[in-house]
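Trying the structure run again after the queue cleared.
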Amino acid sequence: MPDLPRVALVGIHGYGVHQRRAIEEHEAAGRARLVGLADPVPPDDPSDGAPQTAVPWFPDLRTMLDTARPDVVVVATPIHTHTDLATLALRAGCDVLLEKPPTASLEELDRLLGTVAETGREVQVGFQTFGSAALDVIHDAVAAGELGEVRSVDVVGTWVRPESYFTRSEWAGRRTLGGRAVVDGVVTNPLAHAVAAALHLAGARTTDDVVSVELDQYRANDIEADDTSAVRVVTSGGVRVVLGLTLCAATHSVPTVTVRGTAGTATLDYYADTVTFRTADGERTVAAERTHLLTNLLDHRDDPSVPLLSPLRGTGAFMRVLDAVRAAPDPTPVPAEHVERVTDDAGTHRVVHDVEAWCARVAAEGRTFAELGAPWARGQVHASATHPSAHASDAPRPDLEDRA
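Done. Tokens:
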């Protein structure tokens, strides 16, 4: 298969297992050839579920680049390693599929964008939801006026993560590691897809599309980062994005992303790639297809007129939120009397009392946990610096009376 794109994977354990399977599916379909695996830990542990194939393994990316000479590198490594590894691959002449979040700070994003411009190569970011045609279904409906004027986008994300999730690696649940930003909290990693999808649907793609970010963040687990957060964003188009997120729910639920306009709503289920519209004409649900982001990157390599679905620059709005989280004070511990330690089918995990209802109220009312008076909310709402092109006094407040 000499003419097939040569694809290599760096980071072969954890989520790298899924990426390896995806590459091998593309290989089986005649779209690519897997030529190398790079990781300090060799692929010899059958317990991680990795496919057992005879693919050369290398202890580091540089050695793999010199030997395997890939055309595309998939990076599925810890957050704080993304920038350096992607830069190395780009300067070796490779295009990159980079796991989310793309970098650990806006400064790193700017540096990586500079490398993209310098090398003329491409970086696709692994926000899989961006591959869903369901996003286009909503954007088309908004453009056609079906929802009226869009006022807000809200998210409820109530997940369960066992305590073992935060001990799976040295960087899990950390804000920093070895003096470098990591920013591994509920907003920026586990529920990052919901955050990114909400911003996308609010028309916010680049850093310039975000005016301000407000955060109200907590932790019930013994970690540095947030596991329960309220987020409020104002876009340059005046749309409010409000998110109630937790990893401390009693049961695991599918996140909802709802676009609210003056004439109706559209709710995205990004697990199922469906959109449910509710307007004066009634309710209807539309099912959509999803394109794998590696497929899209390979299509773009074959024909540059095919746009990338999740280009690096198009994640700038998400990175404004991540950078606000990075710069914010440490999350406030939830008082022990409001947390229950539960062992069930999900493992041993911590549950914040009534957190699902409080997350739903954050989304429905556009207010933070502290503003709503949640009994365990003792933090101060942290507001990021507004974008230079806007003034805080000009930013609309997401008050209840403004919502459709």
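The first strand starts at residue 6 and ends at 10. Worth checking whether this holds up in the mutant runs.
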